[in-house]
Every structure is written in structure tokens, then in C-alpha cells.
Amino acid sequence: MASAVGKIPALVSTAITLARPKFNIFMKYARVELAPPKLSEIPQIKAGIGKLLTSAKTGAWKNQTVKQATLNALVGAEVIFWFYIGECIGKRHIVGYDV
Amino acid sequence: MSELPFGPPVRVSPLIRFGRWSFLGAGILYGAFHQSRLSKREEKLREIEAKEKVIRDEKLKKEKAIAAAAEIKALEEMVAKK
Fold first, then answer.
1. Closest approach of chain A CAs to the CA of B3, in angstroms?
2. CA B60 to CA B53: how far, in whole Å?
């Protein structure tokens, strides 16, 4: 038991050294893919919202293939799940509200 | 960006990134707001409960005393009969 406890720092340091390159790769992708939108991209965002609204109004969203619809639904769900991550950060508790 | 194992990063549409960040911010605000609201409500409930607990404890004490007295009386009667 004591030897197992003594090995923990070594295990943690090996885990960190092994995970570091992967984390660096993750950060390289995240810098681009998870970057907050720039001010210069506002027109594109506006155009995107307009597109969503027109497709909702005209019913164009019904005219897509099953594959497209699945992908769009998954992307939409992912975007909405960020709300729940934010809620967990805001309430500073993972499960339920800690009152 | 040449040694990336999964090819160049995808250019995610600005709309999606805007949506993610705005939902994240909205979630943080909602969570903080809701948390403070619920904890205020819970605080009030705790206060009321603490007041009621004093009353209830007193009542239970009295009932216990009455029950104990009745028991002792019954025992004494039983002993006296023999």
C-alpha cells in the first residue's frame, strides 16, 4: 500500500509528460475551431442568422436530405449544450443547484 | 500547422462559433441568476424551519413527559395490585 502511494507522483508526472503533446495538438485545433468570433466576422454572422430566419420562414429547412438534416440537428444540439456548460459554470456545481 | 495529425483545422462557420460563445455566456448568466434566486428562497425556508423546530421540539418534550408519567403510573398500579 505504502509503495503504491509512493508511486503516485511518478505516475502523475509520466501522465503529464505523455499527455502534453496531445494537449498541444488539441490546443492548436482549438485555437482555430473554438475561437470566439472576431468583430470582423459580424457581417457573416448576421448573414447566417438571416439565412436561418429565411429558411424558417419559407420552409426551406424541410427541403434537405436526411444526412444534411442529421448533421444540422447534431450541430444545433452541440451549440445548445454549451448553454448547459455555461449554466454549470454559473451555478458553480455540476449536478443540481447547491443551495 | 504542418505536423497536425488530423489535417488542417476545419474552418468552423462564424455563426456556429458565435452561437457557442453566446450560449455559453447566456448559460453562465442564467446559472448565476438562478443559483442566487434559489439560495435566497432556501435561506427563507431554513429560517422558517428553524422557528418551527423550536416549537416542535417543545411539543415533543411535553408529550414525552406525559407519556413517561403515564407509564410510571401504570407500573405503580400494577405493582400495588400484587
1. 9
2. 10
Residue at A99 is within a domain: yes
Residues on chain B touching A72 (C-beta within 8 angstroms): none
State the pTM of this model. 0.73
Taking residues A15-37, report their average pLDDT. 90
Asked whether residue A49 is assigned to any structural domain, the reply reads: no
CB contact under 8 A, A48 and B12: no
Residue A8 is part of which domain span?
1-35
User: What's the average pLDDT block by block, 10 residues per block, for chain B (82 residues)?
Assistant: 76 90 94 94 95 96 96 93 77
The answer as to whether A52 is a domain residue is no
Q: What pLDDT is stored for residue B1 in this prediction?
A: 47
- For chain A, the domain total comes to 2
